[in-house]
Amino acid sequence: MNLTEMRARVREDVQDEDEANYRWTNDQVDGAIERVVREFSIVYPIQQQDDIATVDSSRDIDISSLTGRIGVESVEFPIGENPSHYQKFRIWQDTIQMADEGDGSDARVRWYKEHTLAESSTIPSQFEETIVLGATGYLAASASVYTVDKATIAGKWATINFLKWGKERLDRYEKKLKGLKSRIISKEFYSDS
């Protein structure tokens, strides 16, 4: 599902499909979707792997080319040893500092990347409804704030109903994210022994 399709799906759920009289602008809907995609990415990121050249006699590796980076899982250097040799490392801005010095050959960096949703999507199809759920929850909550001092057909109940419906959707969305997070298995590649 691309962004246009996701926007239409979100508008369908919040019953905001009258193009002549939208409650939310496309920018507002896209903003809610973007927020949810970022939150989803933190819990369920894309797993990437890149081989990046080390610098001879330096412990630093430039990782500025890893765009959309959420975190780094491991640094294997040198590559191809059996068992694999994983470096202890720390990150400062766009630089990894390894425990060992480089020799000009590649280090294998395994890292986590944000999902994207534009003309195409990196979000697995089984999680698209989770994105819709979160975006509609945020939009409904924003509508409750907007209607506080506005005259509406529903009167004071408009604010209460938007807030209640938005909160219910956000609670379900957060529960789904927690379910995803609990499936992540922590691994240790090396020990201090």
Characterize the structure shown.
With 193 residues, this protein is an alpha+beta fold. 38% of the residues lie in helices and 18% in strands. It has two domains: 3-43 and 116-181, no CATH class; 46-113, Elongation Factor Tu (Ef-tu), domain 3. The strands form two sheets. It has a three-stranded antiparallel beta sheet with strand order 1-6-3, with no helix packed on it. The chain has a three-stranded antiparallel beta sheet with strand order 2-5-4, with no helix packed on it. A hairpin with a 2-residue loop joins strand 4 and strand 5. Helix 1 (3-13) crosses helix 3 (128-146), helix 2 packs across helix 3 and helix 3 (128-146) packs antiparallel against helix 4 (156-181). It is elongated and about 65 Å long. The model is unreliable at 147-151 (pLDDT under 50).
